[in-house]
Design goal:
By secondary structure, the chain is an alpha+beta fold. It is built from 25 helices and 27 strands. It has a 7-stranded mixed β-sheet, sandwiched between helices. A 6-stranded antiparallel β-sheet has the order 7-6-8-14-9-12, with no helix packed on it. The chain has a 6-stranded antiparallel β-sheet with strand order 17-22-21-20-19-18, with helices on both faces. Helix 4 runs antiparallel to helix 8.
């Protein structure tokens, strides 16, 4: 039995005990992967736990937060815990990223530090966190309804005092109306104002200043002055009561917070929905062959699971029984279902749409591509742009200045009217609350990042949005970026008497035996016509070609011995007029056993330009962005692709160092340069650019150095990111200008006594709401066509927009 004395919270089993038990369970190392991953102590992921025990990076959601000052308080509380290496808190998404060393601290310890600071932390992917968030939303709605109802009743009792002429109201009637207003205001003060008072008391107890402290002081002073006037009408505060002003500005503040909560949930909620995409449990086959439901985090590589229609695949794996269709919009940005027959690979986070299948698990936890995507989204949601960091730094000094200004205003007006002096102080306290200033930048940045993420472009670095808005030069890599990863058939030249379709079918029969890019291109071009021919006795010479005996399955033609590959392998000449920028594959037939051959057909293959590339380049140029190409391929190939894409400045035969030198040369001319590459050999140049894009299919996302990761492989996303970044920066400037102008106008009016408390509350609520609504316009920009923009560049809306 423990000797510790339980706190009052501990004495409430239905609420406190399950939470404490839940937090203690999180100390089990088997639970850590459910809300974090190993890292190197600086937040970079590690592949294994070999050697010294790695640090862990965990993500939690926070309750009880209301402002940027709350975020700073939680960060300080976490960093004060021994073993916590890093702590980042977002006031916009109410999330925290904590890097901690298991050898020195456990999750329950640093979560307890958050609790001592007056807040609550829960794992970001926990079902209890989602339930608590829903409860918080319902409580906010009830407080708003109570405040609205009581406000209307109080206004009804206050109206006679506004319209009555001297002598119309008797002293008894006026006293009765004051007492009725006082009684109806009590639910507002005791229930609707609860979050403001709780936050303020927490700040006072911890000797700090938060944004709720001035607001709570204003409410308390207004209620105290009005209560004194009700109980002692002949006293110094008996001339007038302000219950109507109190209930009105409480209602306005709660209206603003409720709408902010709804709008925040539409952005941050989309992130949470993506993060919680994996099922909580799944059916796993046991040793006896029976399926039992187990927690998803208990899966291991090699397990066989059954995924039902409508469920998300909980891990990466391979289908061992059945076939279905999958929605992989999270990974590709395209909502079109993808066929997944027997033997196909499936990825965690995609949805099983058609039939129940059995899957052998090949990757779990942080090893899945889904986990890498979630890690990028979480990282972006916690980053603070430079402008937001500046707002956070000035928030506390500004609040202290607000308190001093309120005291000075009250002292100035006190000799003429004590009650009026206190109400002037209340107006100053409320109208100067810097909520709009703190929300101006992060809400716009996160809305833009969420919009791009829903369409298949992940923002790894919110600072990248600021840099991208200033970009005037964009450099493309060629292979895998402007062109597709594979090759495409450009032309077929056959000998007289051999039909093009027959030549392609025979070549495809051999090509199916190889994984060479040229072989895959021939198979794709044949499109099933190779079924007439079957290849046996296949011999492949690496990098040169194939030799095989080809049989006509219909029996109409005798078997033939064919060669497919380079001109040297086929035993023929290089040909005349061959395009040196293209690859030629030759099909030849051995005519006798002594090696004599005859050429049957010659196939010209080349890289396939992405269909949207030319339209995207033209749209960028119209927006004033100069477009360049840097590639390590031969100059002839680079020039051909550049001509097709409409790029005038192209450079080939570049080593990785040469690309970086060319990029730095552009930067030395004063240009703001963005780089778009596939990430395979573009690491130095991606890191050296002011802002960079990498296509997510090329390399593991967690190792990418780019600021943006393109999941769907569409260049349209690059264009849309540039347009949206510019619009985002305009919205941020508008928000900051509005917040500054609002304070410059309203503070003098409040100090001079021309702004009543209810109007101050309305102004504060509207200022914050206007900032959030202005930022929410960014969610509707992607997918809209601009005047003069090609329809091909309009981004299609996808299924992820419903997340």
């Amino acid at each position: 039995m423990s000797n510790a004395t339980p706190s009052p919270a501990d004495a409430s089993p239905p609420v406190a005990s399950p939470q404490r038990l839940h937090t203690t369970l999180l100390d089990d190392p088997q639970e850590w992967p459910s809300f974090g991953r190993p890292c190197d102590g600086h937040g970079a992921p590690v592949e294994s736990a070999a050697g010294d025990a790695p640090a862990w990076e965990s993500h939690v959601v926070l309750s009880g937060m209301h402002c940027a000052a709350c975020a700073l308080t939680i960060e300080e509380a976490l960093r004060s815990v021994r073993g916590v290496l890093q702590a980042e808190v977002s006031a916009t998404t109410h999330r925290a990223r904590v890097v901690w060393q298991p050898a020195q601290v456990l999750p329950s310890t640093w979560m307890a530090a958050v609790a001592r600071a007056g807040y609550q932390a829960l794992p970001a992917m926990d079902a209890f966190a989602r339930t608590q968030r829903q409860q918080e939303s319902r409580r906010a709605l009830w407080r708003w309804l109570v405040a609205g109802f009581c406000m209307m009743q109080v206004m009804m009792y206050a109206w006679p005092a506004y319209v009555a002429q001297p002598g119309d109201l008797s002293q008894e009637m006026e006293t009765l109306l004051r007492w009725a207003s006082w009684v109806i205001t009590l639910p507002v003060v005791c229930f609707a104002c609860g979050p403001f008072f709780a936050s303020a008391l927490r700040d006072v107890r911890l000797r700090r200043v938060g944004m709720d402290l001035p607001v709570a002081l204003g409410m308390a002073i207004t209620f105290a002055v009005s209560t004194a006037g009700t109980f002692d009408p002949a006293g110094i505060f008996g001339k007038e009561v302000y219950f109507d002003s109190l209930t009105m500005f409480v209602f306005f503040l709660l209206t603003g917070r409720w709408l902010e909560l709804r709008l925040r949930d539409s952005t941050a909620g989309a992130l949470e929905a993506v993060m919680n995409r994996l099922p909580d449990s799944v059916e796993r086959r046991g040793a006896d062959g029976a399926f039992t439901r187990v927690a998803t985090r208990r899966l291991a590589v090699g397990d066989v699971i059954r995924v039902l229609p409508g469920e998300a695949f909980p891990a990466d794996g391979c289908i061992t029984e059945g076939s279905t269709q999958a929605d992989e919009a999270l990974l590709t940005g395209e909502s079109t279902p993808v066929a997944r027959p027997l033997g196909s690979a499936v990825v965690a986070g995609s949805y099983n749409l058609q039939a129940a299948v059995q899957v052998r698990v090949e990757g779990t936890g942080s090893a899945t591509r889904f986990a890498q995507i979630v890690a990028l989204m979480e990282s972006a949601s916690l980053q603070k742009p430079r402008l937001a960091q500046l707002a956070d730094r000035v928030a506390r000094p500004f609040l202290i200045a607000v308190l001093l200004a309120a005291v000075i205003a009250a002292a100035w007006w006190w000799p003429s009217s004590p009650s009026h002096a206190l109400m002037v102080a209340v107006a100053v306290l409320i109208v100067t609350c810097p909520c709009a200033l703190s929300l101006a930048t992060p809400v716009a940045m996160l809305t833009a990042a969420g919009t791009l993420a829903r369409h298949g472009l992940l923002v790894r670095n919110l600072q990248g949005l600021e840099a991208l808005a200033a970009v005037d030069t964009l450099v493309f890599d060629k292979t895998g970026t402007l062109t597709r990863d594979g090759m495409a058939l450009q032309g077929v030249h056959t000998i007289a008497g051999l039909a093009r379709q027959d030549a392609l079918a025979m070549a495809a029969a051999l090509a199916r035996q190889s994984m060479h890019p040229a072989s895959r291109a021939l198979c794709a071009a044949a499109d099933g016509d190779a079924g007439r021919w079957a290849a046996t006795q296949v011999v492949e010479e690496a990098g040169q070609g194939l030799t095989a005996r080809v049989i006509d399955t219909t029996g109409a033609l005798a078997p033939r011995r064919l060669r497919l590959g380079s001109a040297r392998h086929a035993g023929v000449g290089a040909g005349q007029g061959a395009d040196c920028a293209a690859l030629q594959v030759v099909l030849s037939e051995e005519t006798d056993g002594r090696g004599a051959v005859v050429e049957l057909a010659r196939f010209t293959l080349a890289e396939s330009l992405r269909p949207e590339a030319r339209a995207v380049v033209q749209a960028l140029q119209r927006e004033g962005v100069a477009v360049h190409m840097l590639s390590g391929d031969r100059m002839a190939s680079v020039q051909r692709v550049a001509a097709q894409a409409g790029i005038a400045q192209a450079q080939g035969d570049c080593s990785p160092g040469g690309k970086l030198a060319a990029l730095q040369a552009l930067q030395s001319q004063g240009r703001q340069v963005a780089m778009v590459g596939d990430g395979l050999n573009d690491g130095p140049v991606l890191a050296g650019a002011h802002v960079s894009f990498a296509f997510g299919s090329a390399v593991p996302l967690a190792r990418s150095r780019a600021d943006f990761v393109v999941l769907g492989g569409s260049l349209q996303l690059v264009l849309q990111a540039v347009l949206l970044a510019r619009k985002t920066l305009r919205v941020v400037r508008q928000n900051l200008c509005w917040a500054a102008a609002y304070n410059a106008l309203c503070v003098p009016l409040a100090v001079l006594g021309y702004m009543p408390a209810w109007l101050a509350g309305l102004g504060m609520a509207l200022s914050s709401l206007l900032v959030v609504l202005n930022a929410s316009r960014l969610a509707r920009l992607v997918g809209e066509e601009r005047p003069g923009q090609d329809a091909a560049c309009a981004l299609p809306r996808t299924a992820l927009e419903t997340v």
